[in-house]
Amino acid sequence: MEQELLEQEINTYREKVRRCVSKEEVWQIKEDYEDALLLGISVVESNPVLSLQQKLEFTMLKDTKLSMMAEMIEEFAGSPEYEALPDRAEGAKEAKESHMEMESLSQEEELKRMLMKRAKAMNSYAGSRKGADGQEPTPFDAKG
Fold this sequence. Notes:
This protein is an all-alpha fold. It has a domain at about 1-90. The chain has five helices and no strands. It has helices at about 1-20, 25-45, 50-75, 80-85, 90-130. α1 runs parallel beside α3 and α2 (about 25-45) runs antiparallel to α3.
């Protein structure tokens, strides 16, 4: 079961690599993957709750993933597909930047929508706290 999940993960990255538009992007995907795995290892190693056995198992799994990724990248780097890729993707960079701008706009719209929702919820809450006389109760009514 675990081996199948590893294969599935590597196949996912294989597809990402095949969609790359430059050699630089291929190596960036590999570096990002390695960075994520190494970060996971450091988090696990510094976790005092996990036993040494659990830490070793996790580290061995991550080593296996790193090895499988390295093999997949080496295999792809020797293929004609990789050789056909430009070293750097100048045109692809511009396309990515325009995509990032569009994504940024949608994030701004989402933020505005969330702020409006928050304001509405706060008004609703404030309205529900008011008494029959329309006054908010004092936070600490002294009872004596």
